[in-house]
Amino acid sequence: MTQLATETVNQIPSSDSAPLLEIRDLEVGFRTQRGIVPAVRGVSLTLYPGQTLAIVGESGSGKTTTAQAIIKLLAGTGQVTAGQILFEGRDLTTLTAAEMQNVRGRQIGYVPQDPMSNLNPVWNIGFQVAEAIRANSDLRGKALKQRTIEVLQEAGLSDAADRLKQYPHQFSGGMRQRVLIGIGLSARPKLLIADEPTSALDVTVQRQILDHLATLTRDYGTSVLFITHDLGLAAERAEQLVVMYKGRVVESGPSQEILSNPQHPYTQRLVAAAPSLASRRIQSKKNEDAPATEIFSAGGTDTALIRRATERELAASGKDLISVEGITKMYRIRKSGLRYTELLAVNDVSFGVKKGTTTAIVGESGSGKSTVAKLILQLESTTSGRIEFDGQDVAGLTGRDLLKFRRRVQPVFQDPYGSLDPQYNVGNTIAEPLLAHKIGTKKERQKRVLELLDQVSLPASTQFRYPSELSGGQRQRIAIARALALKPDVLVLDEAVSALDVLVQGQILNLLTELQTELGLTYLFITHDLAVVRLVADNVCVMQKGRIVEAASTDEVFDNPHEVYTQELLAAIPGANFEFGR
Amino acid sequence: MPSKNHGAQPHFVAALDDTPLVAIDRLDETAKARSTWADAWDSMRRRPTFWMSSGLILLIVLVALFPTWFASVSPTQCQLSDSNGSPQSGHPLGFTFQGCDIYSRIIFGTSASVTVGILAAAIVTLFGLIVGALAGYYGGFLDAIVSRIGDIFFAVPTVLGAIVLLSVLPDRTPVVIALVISIFAWPQVARIMRGAVLTARSSDYVVASVALGVSRFKILLRHVIPNAIAPVIVIATVSLGTFIVAEATLSFLGIGLGPGTMSWGRDIGEAQTSIRTSPQVLLYPSIALSLTVLAFLMLGDVLRDALDPQARARR
Amino acid sequence: MLWYTGKRLLQMIPVFFGATFLIYFMVFSLPGDPIAALYGERPPSPAVIAQIRAEYNLDRPFIVQYLLYIGNFFQGDLGTTYSGRSVSDVMASAFPITARLAMLALAFEALFGILVGLIAGLRKGKLFDASALVVSLLLISVPTFVIGFVLQFVFGVQLDWARTTVSGAAPWDQLILPALVLASVSFAYIVRLTRASVSDNLNADFVRTATAKGLSRPRVVTVHVLRNSLVPVITFLGVDIGSLMVGAIVTEGIFNINGVGGTVFKAIRLGEGPTVVSFIAVMVVIFVLANLLVDLLYAALDPRIRYAK
Asked: Which of A156, A182, A465, A579 gives A151 a disulfide partner, CB atoms 3.0 to 4.6 angstroms apart?
């Protein structure tokens, strides 16, 4: 009855009192052999016409499941077990498949997360866009093609007409995401669900695309439901915020209010951990007065801080531990035919790292930052230039000398799921470097493993576990423990915290800071994330297209960036200048 | 009810009792430690097909090793008076055209089929694994050479190549047949191993081991092969079945095992003449053959599901 | 695409020479007298031996023998059968029959294999899927010649719906039963491959996005799921042509069809080694060419391959 009534009424545009989308006590579960496992529990939210609402949460919080439940696209065995999803007053959970088909695309658009996997690789772009338009309109033939080009142009692909016949793999990630946004908005839906639409992209591209999306949705009066893990992004892009934790809504309301005055302890945690430009380098001393003691776990003392400060002063005047002079790395890339193109991945890069300090190398994908890490680790050879470690040229080290070098310079990689051998248990993984360098007896190695586990704050029983049983953060701890096994001087951290949820990331950054204080380690921190740099680095090198465009102390780079590119990077950090209530 | 002014939706805070906080990233110490192999075993042993196929394989191997435990009648003492005879006491399946006991011929024929299958699968797997692993791991010139040679052998379908080679080999024992099949079948295993090794080689844990100072060969043995071997185990099991079919086909054509060796394929081929009058002569060895192949294919299926985590997730 | 085609053609050359060389080497370079070995227990007359020695240039160095053989091969001289007919003559009359049989079999296995696989993949875990899995496993386990005999017995002898042997001209209708036999094993493989591929693609992100566009279920299934699932099936067909050839020898033997396979079958049974070798060399060359065709088809279906460097 009421549903029929609202269907006729909702023609009136953007009535202030009628919500566009109202979710009431939604429960979603996944059927497994052991019964239904709940993923979303009692979620309610309201979105009014023209508004933007962001659901924020970590992985596993149920935010994506909630979004997918709205348009009935739950993966696998997922099903709505209770609650209502009212879209313009009509309960979407009761619709038939055919009715739902009319809602999708036409009334609710969807922009998925990963631009790489969300376009069908065997159809060209024009086909995939036209298909969406055809399904939701009466346009055919020439008009359809015209509209396809229009949609792509609106989405920001200026040369759309020439690119219709191209395939997804010929597009960059940012361009694919533009196509997906174009598809999502092609039928001018009243609501757009954007599930982490930019998390796979570089910050500058992310900013462009989000700006563009904001313009489009404002022009069309589209409401947007944002799904994101990034509090800064949510704060910047949405008026309304819903914070989810373990399948439940812990806090919701106006973004400003929540961020400046978080009430729920979980939200407080999140707000405290969100890195922003306003944050300062983590010091062990901060432990005492930090708002959330769980993040900044106890450990450092004043004496440690003093020791560290003196060490750093000493180091500042001393010689560089790592000194890189004009290194260049050229790759030959085979093009079609017998032609090669030369790619200058690293172009005349020079910098120095002093003992006991952290130097961050920041850049977007393709900037050559990871190649620099590989060159320093001697995993690849330089085309030209010189890398010195502790006064010794490392190029061409072989045999015993190379082994000695490897003992002192250890890597930690980005992907915590890839850097541990799934067939090895944790104990064996950590003991492997000891075994490779023939250090100690079996018993001594065993003792050292326990010591290392303790250093990375994992219980001794972890040694019997396999990587598949551990979370991303725990794996990264194991990787750090393994790197520390040989008591190295330098850790090369290649995007070591990038794949982690923000709270876990905060935890690992703290651990790294403590270890640095305790063991006098030198870090080379490779990352794309400037906000993280602010938390851990003493010095920063900004890389772009294989070159270092700016190199200075962290404070200088953040407070007074000289280069346009650095300024752009800083401006692109979501929620960079947002006042977080801490 | 939502307020009129939707710019200021109420600030909702969940009761802490409903949403208790959990320590960040805490390790669940109560769970049992599980290796990937233990996981695979767990998922296998819960499937009835695993027990069915491995039970059947055990029985077949026993029959192949100790045929006299299962049959007391000689398979070669045949009387033409019994030609195509129906079952009678002591001869449960009747007689062949030559008047031999069918049951006993099936029991004594097991050994040849199983020997060829197991031997060929062992040779192909071992050779393919080593060649594929070395080619994939060391790459470069070695890889190019091995891959091109593999392409050439791959271009000759196994049974076709075997027909040619066997037509010039006078002495066709089970070992010879197994070797001949292996010559043309190894590239498949080598290709699969090479692919798996390439994937494992580029993984971060291998790079990490290099940076830790582990030697290249040790990395191959300790990290790369253990992580690449699962698909090879699966293909080895499945090919065992297909090699038994290949042997039977060759023997059926009359170019497989020599006249001195008892073989199902050969018996089926010879039964062709009696198909109209006494189909059972053809039927029983066919059933024995098919069941044997089925057992290995089923086991291969179960292994694939257990060893391939993706397949496990899909189920 | 042009570059890809050229590359595949170039890659085929060493494979072509390698494979023919391999066969030639196996037959004529192994220790012992190849002619004696080829004829086994039935040694031919001295005249025939002399003819064969001349034909295969057995008195010349091995590599010359091979090159002359290949030269002849390119001129269409594929050798001579035991009865003195040239292989190319026999091929001319036998090949069309085998081609008909193979086309029928391919049509059966592709059509029904993909259809059954698609339904099974869409209805994963349901009764249809479970039965398709069991039936396909059984079909793979039962060798072609057993299936051949069983179908021959059931349809030819018991029900009398079809002829147990095919007449010399081998018209289409008589080839239906043999084609079913020939297609059976590959049908089972295609069912399994399609099923796995369909169920993978069903969970693919781009399928979810296609649904989110507002496309109808049939359109999503055909245009996105099925279309993408065809790619691995096509690659399988390349390898499968080899087993079709072996299957053709067996099937044509059982149904007494005068195709290429039947000729080889008879030659093997009669111990006519040279005939067998000549025909199989031709079959291997056809296999290599067919694989080239499949590779090109694969590239046509998957743009990522087509545009690969």
From this structure: A182
DSSP letter, residue A294: T
Question: Is B196 part of the contact surface with chain C (CB cutoff 8 Å)?
Answer: no
Q: Are A168 and A119 contacting, i.e. CB atoms less than 8 angstroms apart?
A: yes
Contact predicate B67/B107, CB 8 Å: yes
Mean pLDDT by 10 residues, chain C (309 residues): 82 87 78 65 71 71 78 77 77 88 92 95 91 92 88 82 75 87 92 92 93 94 93 86 88 89 85 80 87 86 74
- Asked whether the predicted pLDDT for residue B277 surpasses 60, the reply is yes
Size of interface B-C (CB pairs under 8 A): 145
Domain of C162?
Answer: 87-301
Rg for chain C (alpha carbons), in Å?
23
Q: Which of B4, B13, B199, B222 to mutate to test the interface with A (most CBs of A within 10 A)?
A: B13
Report the SS3 class of residue A567: helix
For helices B230-253 and B264-271, give the axis angle rounded to 10 degrees: 40
Q: Is residue C219 part of a domain?
A: yes
**pTM across the whole model:** 0.86
Chain B CA closest to residue C244: B157
Q: Does C203 touch chain A (CB under 8 A)?
A: yes
Does A423 contact B227 at a Cβ distance shorter than 8 Å?
yes
CA distance C213 to chain A (A): 4
Measure A18 CA to nearest chain B CA, in Å. Answer: 9
What are the structure tokens assigned to B254, written together?
Answer: 């009359």
| Residue C98 forms part of a structural domain | yes
| Residue C151, domain CATH | 1.10.3720.10
Question: Does residue C294 lie within any of the structural domains?
Answer: yes
Tokens of C165: 């042997």
How many domains, chain C?
1
- Could you tell me the domains of chain A? 117-188 (no CATH), 303-572 (3.40.50.300)
Does C12 reside within a domain? no
Rounded mean pLDDT, A529-545: 89
ipTM (interface predicted TM): 0.85
- To test the contact with chain C by mutation, choose from B49, B145, B163, B166 the residue with the greatest count of C C-beta atoms within 10 A, namely B163
